[in-house]
Each structure stands twice: as C-alpha cells, then as structure tokens.
Design brief:
The structure holds three protein chains of three kinds. By secondary structure, chain A is an alpha/beta fold. Helices cover about 50% and strands about 10% of the residues of chain A. Chain A contains 13 helices and eight strands. Chain A has helices at about 15, 20-30, 50, 55-70, 80-95, 100-110, 115-120, 140-145, 150-160, 180-185, 185-205, 215-225, 235-240, and strands at about 5-10, 35-40, 75-80, 110-115, 135-140, 165, 210, 230-235. In chain A, the strands form two sheets. Chain A has a four-stranded parallel β-sheet with strand order 2-1-3-4, with helices on both faces. In chain A, strands 6-5-7-8 form a four-stranded parallel β-sheet, sandwiched between helices. In chain A, strand 7, helix 12 and strand 8 (about 230-235) form a beta-alpha-beta unit. In chain A, helix 4 crosses helix 6 and helix 11 (about 185-205) packs across helix 12 (about 215-225). The longest helix of chain A is centred in the C-terminal third of the chain and has 18 residues, at about 185-205. Chain A is globular, with a radius of gyration of 18 Å. Chain B folds into two domains: about 5-300, NagB/RpiA/CoA transferase-like (Rossmann fold, 3-Layer(aba) Sandwich); about 405-480, no CATH class. Chain B is about 50% helix and about 10% strand. Chain B contains 21 helices and 13 strands. The longest helix of chain B is centred in the N-terminal third of the chain and has 23 residues, at about 20-40. Chain B is elongated, with a radius of gyration of 26 Å. Chain C is an alpha/beta fold. Chain C is about 35% helix and about 15% strand. In chain C, helix 2 (about 40-55) crosses helix 7. The chains are: A alpha/beta, B alpha/beta, C alpha/beta. Chains in contact: A-B, B-C. At the B-C interface, helix 2, helix 3, helix 4, strand 1 and helix 5 of B face helix 1, helix 6, helix 7, strand 9 and strand 10 of C. Strand 9 of chain B pairs antiparallel with strand 9 of chain C, so a sheet runs across the interface.
Chain lengths: ~240, ~475, ~270
C-alpha cells in the first residue's frame, strides 16, 4: 500500500481519558514520518466493554456512532489492539443480520490498523530512530497477539530501538487478567492471574514493561503500584517517541 | 463424584486461589502440558491445516448427525451389539440399571467417562446395591475421597502424594508410603481384584466411527481395556455428538485428541469396539450395549450459535492453557465439565442463568481457541452466552441477569453517544476523584461499581485534560 | 417401528431419537447426504502403493525408529532378529523375570503361526513352567462347552505372568501394535499378564499411523475382514501420571512391553 495522504486517529477511550501521553507519543511518531493527521473530535468508546459483557444493544449503538464518524476516513490508526479487534472483527458480528450496516462495517473493518501494524505492514517502517537506554520487557496482549495475529510487528519495532535491552519475560503471551469488566466483577480471579504476570515481569529484571494495549498496561500498572514495585509502564508509542 | 453447582463459582474460586498446594499442582500441570501440546501441533506432518480440516470433519458430522447415528446403529447391530437411545439423563440411567438388574450384576468396573458423570450413573447403581468402581487411578482416588475432579484428564491432580498415602492407608489398609510407584501398585492390586470379579464393565466413547460401526475408547492406564475385556457385559455410554463419518477422519481427530489431552502422538491404548466378542473367540464381553444420549444436546444442535460446541471431544487441552482455570482449578466450575469447555457446555446443558458466573468469569484471552486441537471458538460462544444473559432469551429460558448492570450500560451508552455529555461527565468525575484516597496520582480505593478493581490494584487518576482536548488546543495554537 | 431383540421399549425409540435430531438440523424429512468416502484419494493411493512395493531394505530404517521411540515410551525393544535368537531371549525373560502376583510362574500365548514356530514348548529350560495357548474355544462347541472353554482360557490368562502375542501391524513412528480380534488370539493375553511380549514379522512394519489407517480403510483384504469387533492399538506399557504427574508404568495393564521384530531373511 502507498503512503496514505491522511491518517485518521482513533484514540482508545482509556488513552483519551487516562493516558493522553500515549496518544501524544503516537502523534509524535506519525508526524515524524511526515504523515498528515486528523482526529475526529466527537469520537468516544468503540463499545468493546459493553460487547464483552454481553450488552449487544449498547455495543451496537456505539458501533453505529463509530461508523458515522470514521467511515469517510482514508485509513484509521489506533494505539490499541483490542479496540482494533472490536472494530475489525466484532462489528461484523454485531451487524451479521443487518446487510446495510454490515457493508458499512466491512468497509471500515478493511481500513482500520493497529499502530505497530500500520508502521510495519503499511508503511514498511522498522526503525523510527528512537533511542531508549533501558531494560524493557514486552507483554504480548491477547487480542493483539491471538485475535489480530500481530506480534512480529511490535517486536520488530522494539528490536530497532537504539540502546534498549529487550528482556523476554516468562509467558509474555499469557493473559494479564484484565478482561474488561471481568477485572471488576471477578477481581479475586483477575488479581490472581495478574499477580503471576507481575511476578514474571519482576523476574525478567526489566525497568519498563511495554505493550500495545493500555487496558492491559493499566491493569499491570495498578498492581505494580499497589505492591510498590518501581517498574514503569509505557505504551510502545512512548518508547518509539523517545530520542 | 460431581454435583452440579455452578452458582458457587466465585466462592469456590476464592477458596482454591488460597490453596497453595492446588496452585502448585495447576501451574505444574499447565507448564508441562500446554507447551508440549503446542510443540506437537507445530510438528504435525500434515501441517497446520490438519486442525482446520479436523474441525471441518467434526462440523460435517454434526451437520449430518441423524444420518451418521443411523449408520452407526445399523452397523453395531450387524456386529451383534444392542443399541439404546436415551433422551434424558434419567432414561440413560434407567437403561443401564435395567441391564444390570436383568443380568444379576453385582460389581461394575468403569473406565473414565464424563457422560456417566453428567447423568449421575454411579449413585443410581449403588442405590440398587451394586458395587461401582472407578478404575482410572485419578478417578479411583477421588471416589475413595469423595471429591470432585480438578481436571478432565488428570482428575486428582490436586491431591498430594501425602494425601493419597493417607487415603490409601485409611481406605485400603495399605502400609503408609509417599512413593507414587508403590501407591500406584496398591491401587493396581486393589482394582485387579475388581476387574477379575466384575460382571459389568462401563465405558464412555471418545469418538465413534459411523462407516465401520465402532465406538472408540482411549486410555493410558489400560483400565478401559480391562473394563471392556474382562466382564461379560460391556455397556458403552456415548454422547450423541461423539461420532465422525469415516475412518480416515476418525484417525485424524483421534491423533489430535491425544495431542490435546496428554501431549502424545497417540494414546497408549486405543480400542475400536464394534460389538460383543464372537462366539469362537477366547475372551471379550458376550454382550455389548451402546447407550446413545441426548440430554440437552439436540437443543444445542438446533441453535446455530452453539452448534459448534458439539464438535468438542473433551480432550481438556483448553484447561492446560487457560489463565483462569490455572488459578481456580476444575472444582470451582461446579460441573463435571470444567475449564473453558465447561464454561460453555455447563450453561448449555444445565441452565444458563444458574451458570451465569461461568459465562462471565473469563478474560476472553483466546488461549483456549488456540490450544483446541479442533480450533473451536469458545470465546465467541462465551460472548453469545453473555449476550443472552444481559438481554434474556425465551428459547433458552434465560432471564436478564442483572437489572443494575443493564442500567449501568444503558446510561453508559447515553453518555458515550454524545461527546459533549461525555466530556461533562468526565469533568465531574475529575472533580470527584479528588475525594478518593490516592497516592502519587494512583487511586487506592474506588467506589461501587468499580470497587473490585481496587481490591488488589490501584487505578491511575483521570488525566487533567483528555487527549481530545489537548489535540484541539494544539490545533488552535497552530491555527492562531 | 420394529424393535431389535433385547431392546425392550423403555422409553425413547430410535425413530423418535433420530427424528429429534433431524428436526434440530432443520430437515425433518430425512435427506440422503454424501458423507461417506467411497474411493481412496490420490494421496491414499500413493500410500497404498508405497506400502505394497516397500522392500525389506526400505524397512530397515523402521528398526532404528522403533529403537528411538521405545525409550520415551518405556518399551523394551530387543535387538534379536532371528527366530532362534528371539526364542532364546524369550526363554531368558521367562526364566529371569519374577511373577507379580504370587510365586508360581506360567506363560500364556496366542495360537499364531509365528509364535508356534518359536516352539517354546520344546524348550527344556521351561519344562517346569506351564505354557498355555488360548486355543480352547471352538465354534462347533455347544453353548455349555463354550462357556467352560472360555473359563479355562480366562483362568490361564489370569494365572500367567507373561503373555506372548504377535500383531497385525507395528507402526515405527509411535511403536504402536495393531491387533484385530481372532479365534485363538485372546485379547487378554496382551492385557492381563504383567509382562507383554510381542513378536512381529518385519513385513508387518509400517512407517506411520497414517499408513495403518490407509491400509485398514482401503486394502481389499483388510476391507473384507473389517476392523473386527475389537481392534486394539497398543503403544508401550500401561502408564499413569495421576499422582502428582509422576509417570509410573504398570497402572492396570502390563508393566513391561517387550517387542521383537523377526527378520525377513531367516
């Protein structure tokens, strides 16, 4: 694919409200590659939390709004694997019985990309000239890795960050226990799964844990903070924006 | 011994998470089997397409179940077997009971069979004064201790060697030892006596082959072969979906099942049983009964959303990778079917409403689908179940689960559909969050309905400005 | 609806049961569907051809494979290849191994041409050890006689600490023995004695399970015989990991499985 004229940003709600620095870092990286960016001001959540909790009606309403806002975009880029999985795959499930909406969902499904996927697969970029002299471990989030099949792309980008040491944690692709409302409704189970993830992160000896999904990273950060473990959590865009 | 109590999911999970012995057993099991199975998949001589094809074989079988079962039944009868049909659990139990009573059966030996657990066979036979012995070592240990299984393939994995030693000393009167080989020998000796005196052997059916007319059983211990070779009557219980059309398809799924179940190329003992022993053969059962069981499966079959679940062959591969199962163990599911497979099958067989926690209590990480030898899409079906629970479904007799949660999501949707309202609400929350206990920008206690989050983690505060606001300001600055 | 003998009408009939399934499938009137395979694929024809044309030399690598896979399976693969050496090795096993239950030794074996040619019965070293053959049951016997003959076989199998069988096939990749049921070849010989000794002809070696199933499915002789009412595939001795995942051999079936392959050149 040729370099797009204009990239439309879809900012995950968590990034928008809690981790805006992640969005800013993504903007820095994309602009440094000479891309023109657009960010629809009226966007909100894609509906994933509602969908995963079984509230299909509400998820469908969010999807309709999303399609209204984004269907004219040339290409959509989002800093979250699970949101892309929602729009790319589950919107099609939501509108399986509505041929008109399905066509619209399919069109958007074809032009939405996760941030690292966009860099590597669409732009063919492997290095953005970043430098980050720290020990980092990578958490391969589930929706990104298993459902979108994106793993090579973030790892390629990480491998090209200067002076950074990437240390592999045990079970990098094991779930962190987030699961949306699951983390709240079944906090004890979620916490047990998360505790193992946190242990593996600590055992890796990393100073920073990174990934492509702020949901998982927020979850990990929550327990690191609770246990007073001085390991930082950074979205991959933040590492790529470091010079 | 299984009772159906999925509503105790949270309570049981909590207990099991706090049990260090179980935690060690579960992680040991997952670390051993999960990667070993994956390695076998990666070295399949037929390549990755073998699993996709196997899924199609199963799907074809399920989509033509009426034809395949009729063929199987004709062939088994042709081989001299007797076939029974059970619409319900009660009926299956009645049929077996009648065979036992008609033949004056005193002792039954059983190979591991989940469907007999599902229908509650043992208790019914024991009420008639028949001695029933589970012969799989793990199942035997649980029968002696009166516990429910932790794992489909390794049911007693939660028992330490010390607990088994104490149990055997108490129940079998054997000298105390914590040596697994010696403990195994004690069970071997005790059960050998039962095998030799039993007058009925009961097995399940892993996967029947319609065209040849055989049921197939698999074990590593040899207990199923013993149970189906020595007693004069063999009764096989078969869930009606456990069938495939052709021998070549059967072998492909059988091999994948062995990989999923125990990371083996093929189970130690595989038996194709087509009927009773021929009169001039030296041994083998003189009667072969096949009980084909529906017990809610035709309802699953009729629903296109869940039909895929009937492709499952209960190998347990999904248990060996599931992060949730790895913490809570099989007993937490309150059903003979545990783990990710149990989270879908239990609600479909025993009621969606009382299994609500099983439907909602997973992370949807997709590890189960990836580990399934047949690539069954369990996460998709969990989502479908959750949807039924939130909206209700008269076909499945589902009442909307929680009015409170529905209200929360309905209001969420209203805020979410209008950015101005959304921002107003965020502004309000940004003010209110200062009332919450926090340290270095991390909230340590959130109010209901988010309090679960801060039970074991902190939560970063909402940023002073949203990304959207920053973006707008950046644009305005550029524009001025 | 006509009922088969022995299937007394308890509740659900076959017709009702299948009808419910057809209804669930959305086709209440039965349809004829094409789900069964009637001819081998090209790949399967190639396998059949390869197996039939395989020379003794081409089978030699299977011996090495068997040696290798035997180790993790805990199977004793013996190097002896000539009938005479195998005979001697089996005699040694009988003399040196101890019975698991009780102290008296006896051995049971199939009535099978290959095993008959071992002529263990003539071995002077074994003169004090009963050697049973599971060939009591005759199709022509009366029902009472059949029962008595079966009981005799059962008694001898139970008493024996070693059971000797052959096999229809032996699959190199997984060290799997495939055995159909036949007169004179009791199933329990490979199951109830503590030690199972299997002697197979080299010509019965196959490379993979896929080859086995292709033969079972498409070879004319195999088709004519069918799988029989009991086809058993045995890969290694009985085992369990049910106590703390510690692998123990000898759960309920044989604790040891000794495999001999008889060379074609004898």
């Amino acid at each position: 694919m040729n370099k797009p004229e204009k990239v439309t940003l879809f900012i995950q709600c968590l990034v928008d409200t809690v981790f805006p620095e992640t969005g800013a870092a993504m903007v820095t990286v994309l602009e440094s590659l000479g891309l023109k960016l657009d960010c629809p001001a009226n966007q909100t959540c894609c509906g994933q939390p509602a969908f995963n909790a079984g509230h299909t009606r509400e998820a469908r309403a969010a999807a309709v709004k999303f399609l209204d806002i984004f269907e004219d975009a040339e290409i959509i880029v989002c800093p979250s694997g699970s949101c892309v999985n929602m729009v790319r795959d589950h919107y099609l499930d939501l509108f399986a019985d509505d041929p008109k909406m399905l066509v619209r969902a399919q069109a958007v499904s074809r032009k939405i990309y996760e941030f690292t996927e966009f860099l590597v697969d669409v732009l063919g970029v492997e290095s953005v000239g970043a430098r980050f002299p720290h020990k980092v471990t990578y958490h391969a989030s589930c929706h990104l890795n298993r459902f979108l099949g994106i793993d090579r792309q973030p790892r390629t980008l990480l491998a090209h960050i200067d002076d950074m040491t990437l240390v592999e944690m045990k079970g990098a692709d094991t779930c962190c226990g987030f699961g949306g409302t699951f983390a709240v409704k079944y906090s004890e189970i979620s916490g047990a799964v998360l505790a193992e993830k946190v242990k593996n992160i600590v055992d890796s000896g990393a100073e920073v844990v990174t990934g492509c999904d702020m949901g998982c990273l927020m979850n990990i950060q929550g327990m690191l903070s609770r246990k007073n473990i001085p390991i930082e959590v950074k979205h991959i865009a933040q590492l790529l924006a470091e010079k | 011994m299984s009772t159906i109590a999925p509503e105790k999911y949270k309570e049981n999970a909590s207990k099991n998470i706090a049990d260090p012995v179980l935690q060690k057993a579960l992680s040991g099991l997952q670390e051993r089997l999960g990667p070993a199975t994956e390695n076998l998949y990666n070295s399949l001589p037929e390549g990755h397409k073998m699993r996709t094809e196997a899924h199609q074989f199963r799907r074809k079988a399920i989509d033509n179940l009426d034809v395949l079962l009729s063929t199987l039944v004709d062939k088994v009868r042709g081989h001299g077997g007797i076939v029974h049909f059970a619409k319900t659990a009660e009926e299956a139990v009645e049929i077996c009971k009648k065979i036992a009573l008609d033949n004056d059966v005193k002792t039954v030996v059983k190979g591991k069979s989940m469907v007999t657990e599902e229908v509650g066979l043992n208790l019914a036979l024991e009420k008639e004064g028949i001695e029933v012995y589970e012969t799989d070592l793990g199942e035997y240990i649980l029968q002696l201790s009166g516990e429910a299984p932790t794992h489909i393939v390794a049911p007693a994995i939660h028992k330490t060697r010390r607990e088994v030693a104490e149990l055997f000393t108490e129940k079998l009167g054997t000298p105390y030892t914590e040596d697994p080989p010696i403990l195994t020998r004690y069970a071997r000796k005790a059960l050998r006596e039962k095998f030799l005196k039993a007058d009925m052997g009961i097995s399940g059916c892993n996967l029947a082959c319609a065209e040849t007319g055989h049921i197939v059983t698999v074990s590593n211990e040899g207990n199923i072969r013993m149970s189906t070779t020595l007693p004069k009557i063999h009764v096989a219980f078969m869930g009606m979906e456990r069938i495939v059309a052709n021998l070549e398809e059967q072998q492909s799924i059988l091999r994948l099942m062995s990989m999923g179940a125990a990371a083996q190329e093929i189970g130690g003992y595989v038996s194709y049983v087509g009927g009773p022993a021929e009169v001039d053969h030296g041994d083998g059962p003189q009667e072969f009964h096949l009980i084909i069981i529906d017990n809610g499966r035709s309802k699953i079959l009729a629903d296109p959303e869940f039909r895929e679940m009937l492709c499952c062959i209960r190998c347990g591969a999904c248990l060996n990778v599931c992060p949730v199962y790895g913490k809570i163990g099989g007993q937490a599911y309150g059903s003979p079917y545990c783990g990710p497979v149990g989270a879908v099958v239990t609600p479909l067989l025993f009621g969606i409403n009382n299994s609500a926690d099983l439907c909602a209590g997973e992370t949807l990480c997709g590890a189960c689908k990836q580990a399934c030898p047949l690539e069954i899409n369990l996460p998709r079906m969990l989502l479908a179940l959750r949807s039924k629970l939130s909206e209700g479904d008269p076909d499945w007799d589902v009442q909307p689960k929680s009015k409170g949660e529905n209200l929360i999501f309905a209001s969420w949707q209203r805020f979410n559909s209008n950015r101005k309202v959304y921002d107003l609400l965020l502004g309000l929350m940004r003010v209110l969050q200062h009332l919450l206990p926090a340290k270095q920008g991390m909230i340590s206690r959130l109010p209901w309905p988010l309090s679960g989050w801060t039970a074991n983690r902190n939560m970063k505060k909402l940023a002073p400005k949203t990304f959207m606001q920053q973006w707008r300001e950046k644009k305005e600055k550029k524009g001025s | 609806m006509e009922r088969e003998k022995g299937e007394k009408r308890l509740m659900t009939t076959q017709k009702e049961f299948i009808q419910d399934i057809s209804t669930a499938l959305g086709r209440p009137t039965p349809v004829s569907v094409d789900v069964f395979t009637v001819a081998p694929t090209t790949a399967e024809q190639d396998i059949l051809k390869a197996v039939r044309q395989r020379s003794s030399g081409e089978r030699q690598p299977f011996i090495k494979t068997l040696q290798e896979v035997s180790v993790p399976l805990h199977l004793d693969f013996h190097p002896e290849r000539s009938l005479e050496d195998i005979r001697q090795a089996i005699i040694t096993l009988i003399l040196e191994k101890d019975p698991e239950w009780g102290t008296k030794k006896s051995v049971v074996r199939w009535d099978h041409p290959l095993l008959n040619s071992l002529n263990l019965e003539a071995a002077a070293e074994l003169k004090d050890i009963p050697l049973y053959i599971t060939n009591h049951v005759a199709a022509t016997s009366s029902a009472d006689d059949l029962q008595a003959q079966r009981q005799q076989t059962r008694k001898e199998v139970e008493a024996s600490f070693i059971g000797i069988t052959s096999a229809d096939y032996c699959i190199a990749a997984t060290a799997t023995l495939a055995m159909k049921t036949r007169p004179g070849q009791a199933r329990s010989v490979s199951l109830v004695p503590s030690i199972h000794v299997a002697v197979v002809e080299e010509s019965r070696l196959l490379a993979t399970l896929k080859e086995l199933y292709t033969l079972l499915k498409w070879d004319e002789a195999e088709q004519a015989e069918g799988l029989t009412n009991n086809l058993s595939l045995i890969s290694g001795p009985s085992k369990t990991g049910d106590i703390e995942l510690v692998m123990v051999h000898g759960a309920h079936g044989p604790r040891e499985l000794h495999l001999f392959v008889v060379s074609d050149h004898r």
